[in-house]
TrEMBL record:
<dbReference type="Pfam" id="PF13455">
    <property type="entry name" value="MUG113"/>
</dbReference>
<feature type="coiled-coil region">
    <location>
        <begin position="82"/>
        <end position="112"/>
    </location>
</feature>
<dbReference type="InterPro" id="IPR018306">
    <property type="entry name" value="Phage_T5_Orf172_DNA-bd"/>
</dbReference>
<feature type="coiled-coil region">
    <location>
        <begin position="199"/>
        <end position="250"/>
    </location>
</feature>
<feature type="domain" description="Bacteriophage T5 Orf172 DNA-binding">
    <location>
        <begin position="293"/>
        <end position="376"/>
    </location>
</feature>
<dbReference type="InterPro" id="IPR025280">
    <property type="entry name" value="SNIPE"/>
</dbReference>
<protein>
    <submittedName>
        <fullName>T5orf172 domain-containing protein</fullName>
    </submittedName>
</protein>
<feature type="compositionally biased region" description="Polar residues">
    <location>
        <begin position="1"/>
        <end position="12"/>
    </location>
</feature>
<dbReference type="Pfam" id="PF13250">
    <property type="entry name" value="SNIPE"/>
</dbReference>
<keyword id="KW-0175">Coiled coil</keyword>
<feature type="region of interest" description="Disordered">
    <location>
        <begin position="1"/>
        <end position="26"/>
    </location>
</feature>
Amino acid sequence: MTPSPVAASTTAEPVDAPASDTTPPPVRVRELEAEVDALRRQLAEANSRAVQHSPSGDDDFVELDDARLLQQVGIYHYHHPLENAELYRERLAELREQVKELVKAGKAIQAADRFSYNNSLAAGRRMTADFSKLMLRAYNAEADNCVRSLRAGALAAATKRLETAAATIARLGKMMEMRVSPEYHALRVTELELTADYRFKQQEEREAGREERERLREERKAEQELAAQREKLDKERAHYLNTLAALRAQGTASEVADIERRLAEIDAAIEQNDFRAANIRAGYVYVISNVGAFGKHVVKIGMTRRLEPLDRIRELGGASVPFPFDVHALYFSDDAVTLENDLHNAFALRRLNHANPRREFFFATPREVRDVLAEKVGNLLEYAANPEAEQYYQSLSRWPEGARGEPANG
């Protein structure tokens, strides 16, 4: 005899309901096993299709290529904006409690409550309850796998995988009018969104932390250099004061004038040093490029408070790039922070990295930056428009055939 649904769809019994003491008939066991195997095959096929190219208009296709997905989604936008990663973690914990409550209340899977088997409503309910457990387990396995394997930019693919799983369960459970409840599915989708936001916020905070530590190291170096310079100037000043006192006692007028002039220079240097130490916005704005690493049409625009700005530029051209940077401009400003921001804003649409605005590389030539800088500060006494790139050009002739063309963006 064949099972038949009798009444409309309602909420199924809780999936944790105790099993009946009655031993299920062999036919029923075989049917359940066949349904479970079919469900697993459907889910496996949906996942395997994701590694192939999508035919036009194929709604079942799930894109899993991270690189392609990242290009498609562009800049990440938070689905549930929160202030920090800790708030996301707390929100996820609350949501997972809601998921558990729905499962305990038997509201995760919906099915017909008057499904009969062998003309028995009791047997039909037992069969529905057992099959609901199997379906929910399959759905949760897919949902948990989506959460575990979620990558930046892959939220749409993960959501589609979950929707495919829900649709497959509805198709396989059609006889019992069985499906994942919309409320439960919405919670699991929200869990995916929060997880994606949480992981991106974690990445953002780690990156911000690294850059803040780098900024603090740079600040400490600048402070140490300024303090050492002040100590040196104080010693020189004390030396010249002692010399001046001795010369005045001897009455040597010409030498006294020279010492007084030197003291005036030292006093001016001390004043400038103290100003830079007190004014954290004062510093050098630099424009540099690296033809061998980035090509002729990429520059870096930054600032440093270091006493010797070239020290900072030499650090930037360390082991992380194949060639040292060429310096096009070093401009001291009492408000270098504002000047740097003005230059960044002028080339904002030409950033290399639009996901992280703290990366200060831009698609621009040194001449273009010179023109904008001149508009901001007036005449520039020194500006090297053409990079020397000495090591790059010395190395170019020894590069393998096929690698001697212009570097990227060159």
